Amino acid sequence: MKTSIKRTLVAAAISSACLLTAMPTYAEVTANASFTSNYIWRGLTQTTNDAAVQGGIDYAHESGFYAGTWASNVNYGADDIYSYEHDLYFGFSGESEGGVAYDFGYLYYNYDAEAEFDFAEVYGSVGMGGLSLTLSLLAHTEADEGEGQDFGFGQASYVSLDYGTPVLNGAELGLHIGYHQGDFAEAFNGVPDGYADWGISLSKDGFSFAVTGTDLDDTGADAYDNDAVKFTVSYGMDFEL
């Protein structure tokens, strides 16, 4: 999942939290491309623990408005019809005079037409220094509700707390914890209940190494291993257009 307009490798590896960065003093268009050994979203693999190639294009204006698109291959199982994720998003971000950063927007997740499981979220983040708090709420979905399920606005949510700080030799340490819950979250992720996820990452010069996990129980042998601690290596680049 694409997260805000500044998807660093730290965020790509450990969370879908929105990154709080100051907007440039002019309008700009940039592109990004990355390769990761495992596409992890909110603690869960989106590629059955295989590699992914990802990339996107972003527009940012000095007013704080931004918009963009991002795509990745996905794979949820041998007999699954999903092959790609294509995200569209827009929002507004900035920083107050007191140094409080903010970011809020809308994010649409598009998958193969046969899946009929596209959905959208609205999100908001506040932060100061290296610490940020993010809340994402289900806005709408084309998926059909099952018996006893509620896929209405705000009936699924993801809240996360993230901290990033420079460490030795220009590297950046990232810490993350989040919680995903709601009927839609359970249906989309194929999990029986709400769950917590966590991550620790170290990145430098486009490279990132991350360790992630969840509090999900072992459900037996499968292609997901959602209960296991996972190790991910990624590399990404940004380009001005």
TrEMBL record:
Residues 1-27 form the signal peptide. Keywords: Signal. InterPro entries: CHP02001. Pfam families: Gcw_chp. The keyword Signal applies. This is Outer membrane beta-barrel protein. It comes from Alteromonas hispanica.
